[in-house]
Amino acid sequence: MAQPGLVRANDVLLAVDVQNDFCPGGRLPVPHGDEVVAPLNRLAGRFEHVILTQDWHPPRHSSFASSHPGRRPFETIVTSHGSQTLWPDHCVQGTQGARLHPDLDIPHAALILRKGLRPHIDSYSAFFENDRETPTGLAGYLRERGFGRVFLGGLTFEYCVLYSAQDAKRLGFAVSIIEDACRPFAAGNALRAACRSLAEHEINIIQCAAIL
Ligand code: VGL
Ligand code: ZN
User: Fold this and answer.
1) Which one of the listed residues 23, 91, 160, 182 is annotated catalytic?
2) Is the pTM of this model over 0.85?
3) If exposure means fewest CB atoms within 10 Å of the residue's CB, which of 3, 44, 92, 185 is most exposed?
4) Is pLDDT above 80 for 159?
5) CA of 87, closest atom in ligand 1
């Protein structure tokens, strides 16, 4: 796809997991995670349609290392639906850490989609649980509303933004990640692998300046 140029009426901005726990001081902080807030606020002003997502786990969720005796955060285990990184407890339903960042200011967002609610499976993507089969309903929402192009920013680049972008592409949407409105857990090899996978999936990488 060519550079998207100006935002069109049937474009949607997906602001992914801009939550306290992913920001400095949170339970699973992303370096400079709070720096996505200002660009997302500005970008949102250019979109008529904005959707927010929230990682929203029940206590003792299976993605938490604390739910697996003897395991520590950032170890990987194998589950029936593939490998699972174990995380520190984060984004527990109803907690302060699960709240959207207090400076996120997108009052016209139409939908806040919560994900990761099922105790036994994680959900990085806003479209499917990590079995990549169980839908959240977001695809149906986008289709029913007639949206054709999805623009993504938020946290974290390598997980929820990337998985959501891949699924959106697989579902037939035109997809752009607004790179400077995202932050990764870690620069380096994992991020390079993530970017390769974007190219393979024909996902556009753009900067805020292309829209603002
Ligand atoms: C995320 C790890 C665990 C994310 C969510 O939002 O990228 N990462 N849960
Ligand atoms: Zn999570």
Assistant:
1) 160
2) yes
3) 3
4) yes
5) 3
